[in-house]
């Protein structure tokens, strides 16, 4: 299957993408991973992307598209892939359509993870990260540490990242509504959108997604 995963920040896209890709035996292609890999390997695309990022500028669509194209042409993506973070806007969606058309391929589904805006704010603004190890993540409502402000794993101080503040989260949501949400209508016109609720336990959401994709297949 060839799937695009969309949803607002805090919808759990990264978590669901990993589970779905494993269940469907297809690679999870994340924009963040693509950028990190290209930059660390110092590819031409990575150097180009870094030159924009170092200036605090957005990486142009054509660079992101080229990275995605290169990754989708790898042997492990021959029988399908799950795209997470790409396409991010309608221009990228149109470019993806053209890429697939050249290869006589098409998308099977666009999975839209739906979550209320207030829940997004609650999920992200409630996160607390360990200063010693960013992999140790807690939450003021969903995963409270045994001692307030102290990491259960290593005893490090827990803090809220600047980009997890409510004000920043709402700004990120505005960007999502303006730039990314229009691709849902773009794909709805092609009859590809499958919308599911992203509320509940991770396994429940994965189950919903797998059921919806199997119905749509």
Please give a structural write-up.
This protein has 217 residues and is of the alpha/beta class. It has a single domain, classed as Rossmann fold (3-Layer(aba) Sandwich). 48% of the residues lie in helices and 15% in strands. It is built from nine helices and eight strands. Strands 2-3-1-4-8 form a five-stranded parallel beta sheet, with helices on both faces. β5 and β6 form a beta hairpin. The N and C termini lie close together (9 Å). The model has no long low-confidence stretch (mean pLDDT 93).
Topology:
Layout: E1 2-6, H1 13-24, E2 28-30, H2 31-40, H3 44-54, H4 61-72, E3 81-84, H5 90-102, E4 109-114, H6 117-125, E5 127-130, E6 137-139, E7 158-159, H7 166-180, H8 182-188, E8 193-197, H9 202-216
Parallel strand pairs: 1-3, 1-4, 2-3, 4-8
Antiparallel strand pairs: 5-6, 5-7
Helix pairs in contact: 1-9, 2-3, 2-4, 4-5, 6-7
Catalytic activity: AMP + ATP = 2 ADP
Organism: Streptomyces dengpaensis
Subcellular location: Cytoplasm
């Amino acid at each position: 299957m060839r799937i695009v995963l969309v949803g607002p920040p805090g919808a759990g896209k990264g978590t669901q993408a990993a589970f779905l890709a494993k269940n469907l035996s297809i690679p999870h292609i994340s924009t963040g991973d693509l950028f990190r890999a290209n930059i660390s390997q110092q590819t031409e695309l990575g150097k180009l992307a870094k030159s924009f990022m170092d200036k605090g500028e957005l990486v142009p669509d054509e660079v992101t598209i080229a990275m995605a194209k290169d990754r989708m042409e790898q042997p492990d993506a021959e029988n399908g892939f799950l795209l997470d973070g790409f396409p991010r806007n309608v221009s990228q969606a149109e470019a993806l359509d053209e890429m697939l058309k050249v290869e006589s391929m098409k998308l099977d589904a666009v999975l839209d993870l739906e979550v209320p805006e207030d829940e997004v704010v609650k999920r992200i603004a409630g996160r607390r990260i360990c200063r010693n190890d960013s992999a140790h993540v807690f939450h003021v409502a969903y995963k409270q540490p045994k001692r307030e402000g102290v990491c259960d794993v290593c005893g490090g101080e827990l803090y809220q990242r600047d980009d997890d503040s409510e004000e920043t989260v709402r700004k990120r949501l505005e960007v999502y509504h303006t730039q990314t949400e229009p691709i849902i209508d773009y794909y709805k016109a092609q009859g590809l959108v499958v919308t599911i609720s992203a509320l509940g336990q991770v396994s429940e959401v994965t189950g919903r997604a797998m059921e919806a994709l199997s119905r749509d297949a």
